[in-house]
Amino acid sequence: MNTQAIREVPARLQEQFKGLPKQVLKVAKGMLVPAVAVLIFLLLWAGTAKNIQTSLGELPGPVQVWEQTGNLLMEHQAERQREAAFIARQVERNAQRLAEDPNAEVRIRSYAGIPTFIDQIITSLLTVATGFVIASVIAIPVGILCGMSATLYSALNPLIQIFKPVSPLAWLPLVTMVVSALYISDDPMFSRSFVNSAITVTLCCLWPTIINTTVGVTSVSKDLLNVSRVLRLGWFTKTVKIVLPSAMPMMFTGMRLSLGIGWMVLIAAEMLAQNPGLGKFVWDEFQNGSSQSLARIMVAVFAIGLVGFALDRGMLMLQRRVSWDKSAILR
Amino acid sequence: MGYLHIDHVSISFDTDHGPLKVLDGIDLRVDKGEFVSLIGHSGCGKSTVLNIVAGLLQSTTGGVLLDNREVDEPGPDRAVVFQNQSLLPWLSVYDNVRLAVDTVFKRSKSRQQRHEWTLHNLELVHMSHALDRRPDEISGGMKQRVGIARALAMEPKVLLMDEPFGALDSLTRTHMQDSLMEIQNELGNTVIMITHDVDEAVLLSDRIVMMTNGPEAKVGEILSINLPRPRDRLALADDPHYNHYRAMVLKFLHKRHAKPDVPKPLQGRIASRLKVVG
Questions:
Q1: Lowest-confidence range among A193-197, A200-204, B164-168?
Q2: What count of Cα atoms within 13 Å lies in the side-chain half-sphere of residue B218?
Q3: What is the CATH number assigned to the segment(s) A117-322?
Q4: ipTM value of the model?
Q5: CB of A61 closer than 8 Å to CB of A46
Q6: Which domains are delineated in chain B?
């Protein structure tokens, strides 16, 4: 190829791509860099994993993890089919019994199979949601009050600062003992392990919401407060019409941080509390120690990461929906 | 006795270096329907005067009487137009004004009347076309129009304007001044406006109150502007009276009370040191 031809290449390429709308090119460009980065990561992982021998065999690479993902999904489907069959058998049996004796007492017993990976993700989500909702219900009002009263803030601030850095692993034994002492019921609505995990999550995700709500409330623009003074707005109207909307973006920032922390904390809490969620899955696989265990734990790692990411995006979307400040950026 | 009487108002603020007296015996009477401008160099305490009349600040000595009643707290009878508009960013243009209308006329107007009153005031400032826009979707000039509509909608006894057009570009500012004159001709409000724009002061005011430099700012001179209304800025540009008034204000600001380059206490210190050396 002579130099003339080489010089013509970009021009010809441009000619070819002219038909494509600019938008598509832009998206393609935007996706290319992350795709290459992920590919490099996978190659490095595959290359390194091969050379690491653990007592459970070779550290699994991307391929093994992918296989196990398929296995876990298949196990889930198989379990669901078994459950459907179990219920169908019962329905059939009940119908038979009713035919023989119309007064027979019949009921459907729930299927007591082992929880699958998907079930465990759902349990984890329920647990973190419970903990997070409890935390928000406490933290937002406390934050608002702290923001409005400097006295209350200075009273609570030392406690907030001291409890904020405490690890969930330190809370859990205390929570377990307190729950088992107070939560006594013959037919409990929630299992103890669920309550323990949820409360541990609550204890860890109170703080960012309190702190950010406080900051949001205290940093209401002085001019807006002057407007409320000129209008002689009452305490309640002022709070609802001026203070809360203006603190909303900060409040959401706090809640996003809290949810992130809550999800991280949950896995540890579930491991120790034996709540049948992702944490327990990881622990059980670790104890199980089969040749597939490590790959299955890695599947859990990715699942935890993806769910955490989805939770954060969900909060951000909610924030954009609810808050007046549409300038909140995706980050 | 004026409608609004700022009666020998002084105010001191506590600082790390002891109390700082910002205003020293400001005494001013404003008649009903009068448009008064306060002009002076920045930092001389113009805004402090306005905030005391608004009730946002309490004077140390002296007081403010409005319609024979003492002012001791903020209230909608002294509506303020802030320099940075201070609209609630989460409310639409309509809702920003409606909030004020709902608060002030909670009992005296029906829901329908309040709706119409809100629309009427936005019409007055030519903002009827943007009722549903949010403050961050409209320009600075439009925001200030809404700020003025909100203040007017309170039917204040005195309208207080704190450099209302200071943050606008000069073209928008002239538009806004014309709008304000038009509204003023129609409504005849009592207005106190802070400005540091000499043309704005002469064009809009019945009287211009020129303040001396702070701290311990006083009323330096009061200039009555006897130009017939309605005023037309183009016709006035060549008017000898207008230019005379302008010159008077300029002379006050730049000759007799020019802003010193060196703060006074420092000058004193240098002088005393010179004395020691000498």
A1: B164-168
A2: 6
A3: 1.10.3720.10
A4: 0.83
A5: yes
A6: 4-79+156-277 (3.40.50.300), 80-155 (no CATH)
Of chain B, the end-to-end C-alpha distance in Å amounts to 54
DSSP calls for B59-116: -SEEEEEETTEE--S--GGG-EE-TT----TTS-HHHHHHHHHHHHTTTTS-HHHHHH
Residues of B in contact with A221 (CB under 8 A): 86
A221 contacts chain B (CB < 8 A)? yes
Judged by CB atoms closer than 8 Å, whether chains meet at A227 and B84 is answered as no
- Which candidate from B56, B100, B134 shows the least CB-CB separation from A231? B100
Hey, of A223, A227, A236, A327, which one would you mutate to test binding to chain B, going by the most B CBs within 10 A of its CB? A227
Q: For residue range B200-215, list pLDDT tens digits in order.
A: 999 999 999 998 887 7
Task: For residue A227, give both structure tokens.
Answer: 């407007």
> Averaged over A188-193, what is the pLDDT?
83
Question: Which of B76, B79, B88 lies nearest to residue A242, judging by beta carbons?
Answer: B88
Nearest residue of B to residue A223, measured between CA atoms: B86
| 3-state secondary structure at position A253 | helix
pLDDT of residue A102: 80
The candidate with the shortest Cα–Cα distance to B21, out of B63, B72, B60, B64, is B60
Question: How long, in residues, is chain A?
Answer: 331
Q: What mean pLDDT, rounded, does chain A reach?
A: 87
Reduce the DSSP state of residue A166 to 3 states and report it.
coil
Tens digits of residue pLDDT in A224-264: 999 999 999 988 989 999 999 999 889 999 999 999 999 99
Q: How confident is the model at residue A151 (pLDDT cuts 50, 70, 90)?
A: very high
